Amino acid sequence: MRLGLLCFLSFVWLSDCAPPTCYSRALGLSKEVMDLLDKIHTYHRTKTCAEVLPTIFLDVHNSCVTTKLRDLLYVVLNHPDQYCRERPRMVLLKRKVQNLHTIITRICYRDLVFFTNDCEAIDTGHSRPYYAEDRLQLLQEER
Asked: Do residues 50 and 40 lie in contact, with contact meaning Cβ atoms separated by under 8 Å?
């Protein structure tokens, strides 16, 4: 009896009690896509397939993420090499990018808040500082 209760309580303690939100699912899936892209770029069997893929740094807080995901999905779906399209990691990448795009554009539509509109940051990984109007006015007065 005590052993059963102890096992049940330890299971409840180890499990997540709350379901993931749209935001947490989008964050987790974007990290999974980035990790998978890194594996595709470094693995010897998929390294040649990765030459066609665009460089992308996913940030779910950037409003350009939807267009960049759509572009990445187009490249993965229409990869010029049939061998690459059938590789398991490329198929998994296609599925994860489709899921992330669906979550951001349909399921979590209006739930996600975009803080930036810096498309260059998704391409390069470097974001430009954003100055609000009051900070911009201070910068102009200092000059």
From this structure: yes
> Position of tokens 């470097």?
126
Taking the model in full, what pTM does it have? Answer: 0.72
Q: What tokens does 102 get?
A: 């669906």
Dig out the tokens for 137 from the structure: 């006015």
pLDDT in tens, 10-57: 555 555 565 678 888 888 999 999 999 999 999 998 899 999 988 888
- State how far the Cα of 56 lies from the Cα of 97, in Å rounded to an integer: 12
> Rg of the chain's alpha carbons, rounded to an integer?
21
Which residues, listed in sequence order, are joined to residue 62 by a DSSP beta bridge? 116
- How far is the C-alpha of 62 from the C-alpha of 112, rounded, in Å? 10
The tokens of 120 are what? 């260059």
